[in-house]
Amino acid sequence: MIYRRALLWAIPALLAAGIAVGGTSLWRRPSNTHPAVRERAVSPLFEPSQAETLLEAPDRDAWQKPDEIVAALKLQPGETVADIGAGSGYLISRLSRAVGSRGTVYAQEIQQELLPALERRAESLGNVRVILGTAEDPRLPEHSVDCFVLLTVYHEVQKPVAFLKTLHRYARPGARLAIIDFDAARRGSPPAPTGHDVPEADVLAEARAAGWELSERHEFISSQFFLVFRQMPDAG
Ligand SMILES: C[S@@+](CC[C@H](N)C(=O)[O-])C[C@H]1O[C@@H](n2cnc3c(N)ncnc32)[C@H](O)[C@@H]1O
């Protein structure tokens, strides 16, 4: 009896030990990822009906600092910037101004319900193209993007390493990638919404595994990290 109970306790440990390679258990890590990448919980998709109250909240600018975000991206006139998971288009008018009439903004989304709001905003701006992608594939024109921006999107990306690898197909050589998101451990203000955050350390490991190296880190948003990556030389 004692032996049977001991065996029940031991089974998970034996399984973990038995399939562990190099100290990392295979059952926690999909085989197509890098050893430094751990499995983690991914948040559910944002509910489009909440766009007005959450994404367009009147007090958002005060903590989100969108002008500072766009300034930190150092966009040049004529560049192409992809706002991945653009939501209702919170950032697109600023991005549009930054790249100017010779530049292009791809306002990309995967939820059809958000497209009308994006189309409405895009209409008056002239250099914004609204694009419907999928959770695995942003479906942008190939080799066209100078800068990708994921503002409060990454925590919802279902297969993060594969997704970041896919971006190389759409990148111009030397493209940069900005990931801005909540990390509950920052204990910033406003607090990260429960279950809608991602540890910065995981983002760093996942981006590296996908061929993006950290080039800048900005610290002006209290509750969100702001990381800028560059394509690793042979990643494209
Ligand atoms: C919290 S909203 C943020 C919207 C916008 N970036 C903003 O800050 O106002 C997250 C958005 O990411 C989108 N999203 C989630 N996974 C995505 C993916 N794999 N590719 C593109 N968009 C995605 C969702 O549809 C949702 O609109």
Give a verbal description of the structure:
- The structure is a single chain.
- This protein is of the alpha/beta class.
- It folds into two domains: 1-31, no CATH class; 42-231, 3-Layer(aba) Sandwich (Rossmann fold).
- Helix content is 31%, strand content 23%.
- It contains eight helices and nine strands.
- It has helices spanning 2-18, 51-55, 60-64, 66-73, 92-99, 115-123, 160-170, 200-209, and strands at 20-21, 24-25, 80-84, 104-109, 128-132, 145-151, 171-182, 212-218, 224-231.
- A seven-stranded mixed beta sheet has the order 5-4-3-6-7-9-8, with helices on both faces.
- The chain is globular and about 45 Å long.
- The chain starts with a helix and ends in a 5-residue tail after the last strand.
- Residues 1-31 have low confidence and may be disordered.
- S-adenosylmethionine binds at residues 45-46, 55, 84-87, 90, 109-111, 114, 133, 135, 138, 151-153, 156-157, 163.
